[in-house]
Each structure stands twice: as C-alpha cells, then as structure tokens.
Specification:
mainly alpha, Serine Threonine Protein Phosphatase 5, Tetratricopeptide repeat, two-stranded antiparallel ribbon, two-stranded antiparallel sheet, about 45% helix
C-alpha cells in the first residue's frame, strides 16, 4: 500500500509540474530565437539596445580600436611599454594572424552588424511612429561597424585599385545569423555600402542631442569621415556642414572640459561609461596607475614639441608621479565617456574641404580654424593654408584614434626607429584573423601575412 501511495504521489507531482510549466511557458532568455527576440516592438527595441552594447565593447568603440590605430601611427611620438604581447606586437608592427586583439575587433564589429541586421529584418513589428528612428539607428550602427572594419583590415581607399583591392565581407540583412562563408567584397563595394547605410540613416534619424543614441548629426559626421577617406571633398564638406548647421551641438568653452566626464554638448557620438555599465579602455592603457590605468602609453618630447607653448591642448599632458613618464590627459577618468566623434572635427573637416575646393560653404576656412585655435588659447591666424588646417587637425584630434587614418588618406608616412612606413604599407593593415581563415575558405589573407 505504501508503495502504491508513493507512485500516486509521484504521478501527482509530475502532472502538477507539467501543468505549471505549461502555464508559465518557461523560456531560457539566453537561448531565444527570432520568433521571440523579434516578435514585437518592445523586443526589437531591446535587440537594438544589444547592438549599442556590441559597438560599445572594449574591443571596438570602448577604446581598443582607437588605441590600436594610435599605436600603429606612433611615429616615434608615443611608446607602448605594457606587458600585453598582442598589443605590443601591434605597436611594433610585428602582428601575427593569431593576434587576439586583431581577432576581437573583427568579432565585435560583426557582432554589432549581425544584431543591427536582426533589427532591420523586423521593422514591420515596430510601432509606426518609431520605425524611421529604429531603422536609422540600426543602419547607422551597421555602417560605422563596416567602416571600422575596412579602415583596419583593408588597404586605404587612397591606395587606388578600389574595385580590385579586397575589403571585408559585407554582412547585410539577408546574411544575418548565417554561418555560410562569404568572400571579401572590394574596397569600393564596402565604401559604397557604408555611404548608402549612413545616407539613409541620416534621412531617417531625428536630430540630437540624444543620450546614447545615433542622431542625424552623428550620421552626417560619420559620412564626412567616410568621404574624406574617399577624397570626395565636396561631399565631406557638405556632410560636416550639415552636422554643424543644426545648431544642436556646441563647442565646450575649454578643451579640458570636453574630456573625462559624461557626454558633452560637443559629443556627436560617444560611449557613456558608468560604475555599472560600459568600459573605457583608453583610460585603461593611457592613464597612470593613480588615474585608474596601466600606464602603458608614454608620450615623447617629439610629440609635445608639436604644440605651441601657449596651446591649452599641451596642458592636458601630465607627468606620471609613479614613473616620471608623460601621459595623455584626455583619458584620466575610467568613468569618462569615450569620445568617438566630436563637433570640433567637423569644423576642421569643413575648413579642409573648403580650402581644397576654394569655397566658403558654412564659413571660411580661416574662421573655422580660428574657432578651434581660439578655444585652445591661441591667437588668430591672419591667413590660412592647407598645411595650417591639417596641423590643427593633428593637434586637436591627437590620441583619439584618427591619426593613422589621416596619414593613410593624405598618402603620408610615419617613422618608427630606423624604418619608414608609407601610407599603404602592408604592416599598417591588420591581417584577417586566423580563426576566420580556418572556417571560411572564401577568404584571402592580406598581403604581407601568411596563414598558419
């Protein structure tokens, strides 16, 4: 009898548990497919937040990609003295195809793209009043992630042969979640897609500022960067002018007030960081130990000597009391937002393009340059040359991840020790990660690298 009772009790428990399970419809939130993740407006918008989280990764706009481009463009102006071998190899231009930092940028970028594509595939369930904004944000994120990839893993646009030089695989909405191998598109095809994404994004997005979101001005600003890389100066000028002309953003009164805090009126797009969310790897590698960093990047006198003694931007550098080395003062707060693109850059882009074209769209090159110089505490120039403008750009955007890309588009060169590297040198391009080569037989490796 006791045995029968036990069996009946066990059966009762099983039936009760099954009934409860059916009522609750329990689902593992970490293992949901499109049927759930993209089923309604709320879920699609949550997925979009995931795309922002992906692009905020420390391996991408959380800092590492800016750090790596600055280290490649060190030019005997900065030194990497840290103990991370993969980062040291990037600085020393002795990268191997198994470099973890190289692989992590690729992974973070395509993760961003894939999540953005998931959002774009489900716009029909988004509330009608929000569809344009959601589509614009997803297109923006996909466009800038593809841009970062082609900047780092392909020959620069300025090297020519854009229709034959290999770019990176283009992952579009129809490719989302696919494991099928995809070949590298040409540099031209990648740039064309980036322009298309950002152009449509700009037309759909609302004006800013909007905390932690893409805006019409941010899309225009990134378009100006893309067009500069392409040498399309009229389009770059007009895009920069659009970002400036809404009047929704303004320069901070001092250079120091731009950095080491929350988002500012000058930030067209940045990565917010707090005690509970986000990462600032520029702080991690650039700052002294007393400022929360590793103190891995030292600034040399050759860089400091580029600044006028009265230039407020020079005052941002400081002496690390623990080592005696000079550090970059833009990144001394681990909870400061990571600056991705600033209004100051738009003044300098508009000035450069107007100077090249002999135009005065928005303002004169002289006025735009003097706007930036005045904020840095420098006296007005009476006349301006292209060289003046490019020098202001170099100083204003120093240690923000743009120097390498400017050297490439301007067909310049850089020096490290006894070696001079031209703008299109193989060593200034990342290899395709070995892990990707191993699983995708359609990929071809970049020149100068041999796959294992």
């Amino acid at each position: 009898m006791k045995k029968i009772n036990k069996i009946l009790f066990a059966s009762f428990l099983l039936i009760s548990f099954t009934a409860c399970e059916e009522d609750l419809e329990l689902t593992d939130p970490n293992n949901t497919g499109d049927a759930i993740a993209l089923i309604n407006d709320k879920n699609v918008k949550s997925t979009l937040v995931g795309a922002y989280n992906a692009i905020s990764s420390g391996n991408l706009f959380g800092g590492n990609t800016f750090r790596n481009s600055e280290l490649l463009a060190a030019n005997d102006e900065i030194v990497f003295s840290g103990t991370f071998n993969d980062v040291a190899d990037i600085y020393g231009k002795s990268i191997i195809t198994a470099n973890a930092d190289v692989a992590n940028l690729w992974i973070a970028s395509y993760n961003t793209i894939n999540v953005a594509n998931n959002v774009l595939s489900a716009l029909s369930v988004v509330n009608d009043s929000d569809q344009d904004q959601v589509e614009g944000e997803a297109l923006f994120l996909r466009g800038v992630a593809h841009f970062e990839l082609v900047l780092m893993y392909a020959k620069p646009y300025s090297a020519g042969n854009t229709t034959t030089n290999p770019g990176v695989p283009l992952m579009l909405t129809e490719n989302r979640n696919s494991t099928d191998p995809i070949a590298r598109a040409s540099v031209q095809q990648v740039y064309d897609q980036i322009v298309a994404d950002l152009t449509l994004a700009e037309s759909l997005l609302a004006e800013g500022p909007s905390a932690e979101k893409a805006t019409k001005e941010a899309a225009a600003a990134f378009l100006s960067r893309v067009y500069l890389q392409m040498g399309e100066y009229e389009d770059a000028r007009d895009a920069a002018n659009r970002a400036l002309s809404t009047g929704n953003y303004s320069l901070r009164p001092t250079v120091a007030s731009v950095f080491n805090g929350a988002s500012t009126s000058e930030d067209l797009f940045d990565i917010p960081v707090s005690t509970v969310d986000g990462v600032n790897n520029m702080n991690t590698f650039y700052a002294s130990a007393t400022n929360g960093g590793r103190g891995d990047v030292e600034v040399l006198a050759t860089h400091l000597n580029l600044y006028d003694a009265s230039d407020a931007r020079r005052n941002l550098f400081y002496i690390d009391t623990g080592t005696g080395d000079t550090r970059v003062g833009k990144w001394i707060n681990r909870y400061g937002s990571v600056k991705v693109i600033r209004l100051a850059e738009m003044f300098l882009t508009r000035a450069e393009c107007n100077q090249r074209l002999g135009t005065t769209v928005g303002d004169t090159p002289l006025n735009d340059v003097n706007t930036i110089r005045n904020r840095a505490g420098l006296i007005d120039l009476g006349a301006v040359t292209l060289g003046d403008i490019l020098n202001e750009r170099r100083l204003e955007l120093a240690h923000e991840g743009q120097r390498l890309h400017d050297i490439k588009r301007l067909q310049g060169s850089l020096v490290q020790g006894a070696t001079t590297y031209q703008f299109d040198d193989n060593k200034l391009v990342f290899p395709i990660p070995q892990r990707e080569m191993d699983v995708n037989n359609l990929l071809n490796q970049n020149d100068g690298y041999s796959s294992n």
